[in-house]
Amino acid sequence: MTLPEKLLEDQKAAMRSGDEPRRDALRLLRSAIGYAEIEVGHTLSDEETLAVVARQVRQVKESIEGFQLGRRQDLVQKAERELAILLGYLPQQLAPSEIEAEARKAIAELGAQGPRDTGKVMALLMARLKGRAEGREVSAVVGRLLAGASGTPAGRSP
């Protein structure tokens, strides 16, 4: 069963069981997939569908941040439920230590020396980690490692 077929079946099951949050999250996701199919002019593969799911996850996370800034706890809770549902359709996300290990391997393979090599390292890593790590997290790890490799102090987050 392809991912879009699974999403449809899960949406039907949510409708039958009266699970409104799941039904609504899957409706929004399937709508985003439909728009993406129109944009590219063909039915999406599972890999392309995963990219749409990842994009939706990123949007929901950004919404949560905005709702928190606006002190809208009711909307934060609703968005967090939606996020949990969407994350169930993505491959298992890598832990920060796993991202760092992959980044170290990529840096060694490419012989990256400092921040100027960030683009090469990111291109290789994002191809390897597709769907398993957010670009923002990978970029932060690569930046920190390459800043340390060039002899400049690494800027660490608190």
How many domains, as an integer?
2
Figure out the total of helices.
7
Helix content: over 70%
Largest sheet: none
Q: Under CATH, the topology of the largest domain is which?
A: Hypothetical Protein Yqey, Chain: A, domain1
- Corresponding CATH architecture of the largest domain: Orthogonal Bundle
Give the overall pLDDT as a whole number. 86
> Termini, distance in Å?
44 Å
Tell me the radius of gyration: 19 Å
Can you count the beta strands? 0
Shape: globular
User: What is the assigned CATH homologous superfamily of the largest domain?
Assistant: Uncharacterised protein YqeY/AIM41, N-terminal domain
Which percent range describes the beta-strand content? under 5%
Q: What string, H for helix and E for strand, traces the elements in order?
A: HHHHHHH
Given the helix and strand composition, which structural class is it? mainly alpha
Q: Mind telling me the CATH class of the largest domain?
A: Mainly Alpha
Give unreliable regions as ranges: 152-158
Detailed description of the structure:
This protein is mainly α and 158 residues long. The chain folds into 2 domains: 3-87, Hypothetical Protein Yqey, Chain: A, domain1; 96-149, Arc Repressor Mutant, subunit A. Helix content is 73%, strand content 0%. It has 7 helices and no strands. The chain has helices at residues 3-17, 20-40, 46-69, 73-87, 96-110, 118-128, 135-149. It is globular. The model is unreliable at 152-158 (pLDDT under 50).
